[in-house]
Amino acid sequence: MAFIAAIPWTKAKHLIAVLGSLSTRDALALRRLPRLAVAAAAEDAEPDVGIGSIGQFSWKDLLNFDACTKCGRCHEACPATASGAPLSPRDLILDLRAHAARSAFRPGANGPALIGDVIEAEALWACRSCGACMEICPVGIEHPPMIVQMRRQLVEEGAMDQQLRDTLDMIANRGNSFGESPRSRGGWTAALEFPVKDIRAEPAEHLWFVGDYASYDPRNQDVSRTVARLFRAAGLDFGLLYDSERTAGNDVRRVGEEGLFESLAEHNLTAMGAAQQFDAIVTTDPHSYNTIRNEYPDFGDVAPIRHYTSVLAELLESGRLTVVKPLGIRVTLHDPCHLGRLNGHYDEPRRVLELIGCELIDMPRCRDNSFCCGAGGGRIWMP
Predict the structure, then answer these.
(1) pLDDT on residue 42
(2) Domain 2-157: which CATH class?
(3) CA angle, 166 as apex, 163 and 170 as ends, to 5°?
(4) Rg of the chain's alpha carbons, rounded to an integer?
């Protein structure tokens, strides 16, 4: 009886917290972020945007704090930590736990200030939202969603780098992170030997959601044209939204700009709804794939979406695409975090490489332990 009564004041409480943390783990935690941190304190009050004090964390977050066993696996897996950035997922959780223990608070109350005094803003902005820490954590702690909630508070206060602020303004005003005219989004198709359908005017089997970098970046435009030629050669019926498409908003949301993300999602869903008939969506962008697949359904009906590697593997295996001259080279594959770790698509890209005659040699960090490229979570827009 004495032992049971003493559990909350001893390290034995972690045994209980671990069981609770694992039993309440959300398999979609990073794939699908919550729309708001917590409900408003009163029915007629505005909802809180993000988390700025320890009392705004949910009971599940507090359970995660107590569940941490300081094993350091998340610290070793984190690309931000490995690159010398001021973020350690382990230390972040331990600092929050220590602050919660010191503070007299109850869940839902505001409590003492959090960001700046306990957690440095630079540490929050260093996160790549790759999910490596979550994937490797043996006790089910969900670090990145907590970080995004705290980022939302920083965005609400306007406490962000000027380059990031400018990018978000460009996205809000022009619908893309390059600041280019929306009318030029489909300009890459002009160099093709055939016209690409405007799905707003004529139906197609697939709507190709192209994404910003595949539409505007010169190197990625070459890839887009190659994919278009492959689709054409296989007889795949596809069309584009052209200037009605805006950035899908996956990284806008992970930066913490929830309002802008919601407006982007609503715009794209409206554009899809106004298009002529299509059966499915295909995209070459893992980030667009993630948010359209997992987050857009919260805002309206959305057609099934596939990553182009799945489509190419199917076209090759069915014989609709034929390899005339196998490449015969040794290659390796970097698993994109949003395609692999978040959505479980490891085999389709490898199957495509095998079918075109490549010998695949995996890197030490691959599949669910893939090493993030460093651009996720909006880091591509920050210095």
Answers:
(1) 47
(2) mainly alpha
(3) 140
(4) 23
